[in-house]
Write a structure and sequence with these properties.
single chain; mainly alpha; 21 helices; 0% strand
Length: 408
């Protein structure tokens, strides 16, 4: 089977295999009412199939969803994400932003105060930003290892540690977030009045005037939307390159710039609201980014995985403890919010976009019994989760990585 896949199989077969993993995850998620997240199932199936030699380790590349494709999809998706966020969603969720920052502080305290004495200082320093962030933080710490660690063998292990941390750091969140979100949403629906439900939906999702653009609706074809998103992504890249001339590696990332431009241009009615949905490409872009992101798990063989899993699991565990303690305290005693909701918001640093969005909408689909409840839950919780992910992953974790590299 592996020989055939490696030598004769067409790319569409690899796509079929990957989609089978995702479809199985979707099926189990529906069957368990989001108790088992679809992404978690997909990652486990990919890992088992790779280690068992059933699929080639470069299956994502062979399916045409390698780095270049996922990089393109990610650039388009991050701008499109900006078109789904209302500016008032961000300003009205300033408490969420602060909770996200405290979550990152909790990760740092947990990994360095508890993890370092157990797993070693360099190990904890390299893993901390990755536990609290995403691929940008991982790449930053790998670059720091190359520059600052003189022992080649040690450098290789630390680089692998960063990659493995990224590959598995979101798995605990897959298990923790859905049941807590379900409980929070169920309690919310039991307490909210019909009038308040409609008010929140209308206020957050905006009025008719905010849905229109300077270009009449009839001209926003799929090609026009993708062209517009691509142009904005290119501008974000150019801005990043310009910033790098005097800020170096600390320049604002392309993702952050693209997101900000997406929000601003939608606010000024230049880009259409929810551009990816209007173009009918949101689901495809999600899948490309997800498969590419988690293909890292196929880059390690089973012995390497087992060698590194103890410090990775331990540091993720103490990081989650730090997130829970700080977000719980801030939510309960400072903002007077549901502490468990604050914990979920803090856990966005383990997920980020688009996975936090998928888990949230997946849970809403299970909880909501009608369109009114779905609109209310979407209007209230999706912006909160997106803002939490934006603050922790795209900004906070990169800043944390810049600080942590100085401790190697």
């Amino acid at each position: 089977m592996l020989e055939y896949l490696s030598t004769q199989a067409p790319p569409v077969m690899f796509i079929a295999i990957l989609m089978f993993f995702m479809a199985t995850g979707d099926f189990l998620s529906k069957k368990t009412k989001a108790l088992v997240p679809s992404i978690f199932v997909m990652v486990i199936l990919m890992a088992i199939a790779g280690w068992a030699g059933i699929i080639p380790t470069d299956i994502v590349d062979r399916a045409g969803m390698g780095f270049e494709t996922s990089d393109m999809a990610g650039d388009l998706l991050i701008v499109a994400m900006g078109t789904s966020l209302y500016l008032r969603d961000i300003t009205s969720n300033w408490r969420v932003a602060i909770i996200g920052l405290f979550a990152l502080i909790g990760v740092a305290l947990g990994c360095l105060l508890i993890g370092a004495p157990i797993f070693g200082w360099d190990t904890s320093v390299v893993a901390t930003p990755v536990v609290g962030g995403g691929i940008v933080a991982m790449l930053e710490m790998q670059r720091a290892v190359i520059e600052l660690v003189s022992d080649p063998d040690r450098a290789y292990m630390l680089k692998s540690l960063a990659a493995l941390t990224l590959a598995v750091q979101s798995l605990p969140a897959f298990i923790i977030i859905p049941p807590i979100l379900k409980r929070v949403m169920k309690r919310d629906l039991g307490q909210v009045s019909e009038v308040e439900m409609k008010s929140v939906s209308n206020q957050t999702l905006g009025g008719k005037g905010e849905e229109t653009t300077l270009l009449p609706e009839k001209y926003w074809s799929t090609a026009t939307i993708i062209f517009a998103l691509a142009i904005v992504a290119v501008i974000a890249f150019w801005i990043n390159q310009w910033l790098r001339t005097f800020m170096g590696q600390y320049a604002i990332s392309v993702s952050v710039i693209g997101l900000i431009l997406g929000i601003a241009l939608t606010q000024f009615r230049i880009l259409p609201r929810n551009a990816d949905d209007k173009a009918g490409m949101g689901g495809l872009l999600f899948l490309i980014v997800i498969f590419s992101a988690f293909s890292a798990v196929l880059g390690l063989d089973l012995p390497q995985f087992l060698e590194l899993i103890k410090p990775v699991a331990g540091l993720i565990f103490v990081g989650i403890i730090g997130i829970f303690v700080l977000t719980f305290l801030v939510g309960k005693f400072v903002f007077k919010l549901d502490p468990m909701l604050c914990f979920v918001l803090g856990l966005n640093c383990l997920l980020g976009f688009p996975i936090n969005y998928i888990l949230t909408t997946e849970t809403i689909g299970v909880i909501a019994s009608n369109e009114e409840e779905k609109a209310y839950l979407t209007a209230k919780y999706v912006p909160m989760m997106l803002v939490a992910g934006f603050v922790t992953i795209t900004i906070g974790s990169v800043l944390l990585a810049g600080v942590m590299r100085g401790f190697l």
